Amino acid sequence: MLTEKYITGFCSINNGIVAKDGVNIFAHENDLSGFLLSAYQHLQLTYPKFYKMDNLSKLGWLAAEFLLKDTFNKHEYQPEETGVILANANSSLDDDVKYWESIKDVASPSLFVYTLPNIVIGEICIRNNFKGEQALYIQPEFDAQFIAQQVNYLLDKNVMQSCICGWVDVFEQEYKAVLFWVEKKKTDKSVDFSAENMDKIFNNNKLR
Q1: How many CB atoms lie within 10 A of CB 117?
Q2: pLDDT at res. 111
Q3: How far is residue 150's CA from residue 133's CA, in Å, rounded to a whole number?
Q4: In sequence order, which residues have a C-beta less than 8 Å from that of residue 64 and are 6 or more positions away?
Q5: For residue 54, which of 45, 109, 114, 169 is within the disulfide window of CB 3.0 to 4.6 Å?
Q6: Could you give phi then psi for residue 192, rounded to 5 degrees?
Q7: CB 54 within 8 A of CB 60
Q8: For position 135, what pLDDT does the model report?
Q9: Would you place residue 117 in the very low, low, confident or very high pLDDT band (cuts 50, 70, 90)?
Q10: Does the pLDDT at position 145 exceed 90?
Q11: Predicted confidence (pLDDT) per residue in 157-197, tens digit
């Protein structure tokens, strides 16, 4: 059965700027590692595991933190009712290159752990106790139509009731994350969940 679905929040991290629902909320000029650390400190959190993550996981984890802050009520959904559907272009290549360099001396187990791109989903789910459907697709560019199809199917079939979906990609100093919080409920600030609206947000265009 088809159901109405809405984007009730979105967050982007790119070019040293964090924006939530189209409003810039944090900016810092630094290399990627320095920027991610500054963004984490801005949230004023105590989550020691953050420091052990690779850059891809840090980027996705931070985007989810900013997205859900003051938006997500963990009591509204059971853990199995929320899923995470992501895509990127570079898979775990940023870590693959670093790991390859490390084996010339002594292979690094801490790097090897992150040579799977879907670890970023695991970090988001562990933090938020999400236990719904999870998937990460490798695509040459953001394909909003494809992501919308996956999320629509899962919510229409009641496999889950809410979802974080979008794009998280890192390679060296190039990075971009755009995450959408999708629910079946409508809010004052929500917009229809559609490939067109996701594309507009992803490309930083006005929705209205």
Answers
A1: 26
A2: 66
A3: 10
A4: 11, 124, 127, 128, 164, 179
A5: 114
A6: -60, 140
A7: no
A8: 97
A9: confident
A10: yes
A11: 999 999 999 999 999 999 999 999 999 999 888 999 999 99
Strands, DSSP E only, in 15-102?
Answer: 17-20, 23-27, 82-88
Q: Cα(169)–Cα(94) distance, rounded to whole angstroms? A: 9
Whether domain 6-202 has CATH 3.40.47.10: the reply is yes
- Extents of the domains making up the chain: 6-202
Classify residue 81 as left (phi > 0), alpha (psi -120 to 50) or beta: alpha
Structure tokens at 192: 């229809």
What's the chain's length in residues?
208
Of 143, 208, 198, residue with least CA distance to 11: 198
Q: Tokens in use for 107? A: 């292979």
Angle at 136 between CA 74 and CA 95, to 5 degrees: 105
The predicted-structure confidence for 61-96, as pLDDT tens digits, reads as follows 999 999 999 888 888 999 999 999 999 999 988 776
Q: How confident is the model over 97-116, as pLDDT tens digits?
A: 776 676 667 666 666 676 68
Residues 110, 52: contact at Cβ < 8 Å? yes
CB 204 within 8 A of CB 24: no
List Cβ neighbours of 136 (8 Å cut-off, separation of 6 or more): 85, 86, 87, 88, 117, 118, 120, 121
Q: Is 90 exceeded by the pLDDT of residue 26? A: yes
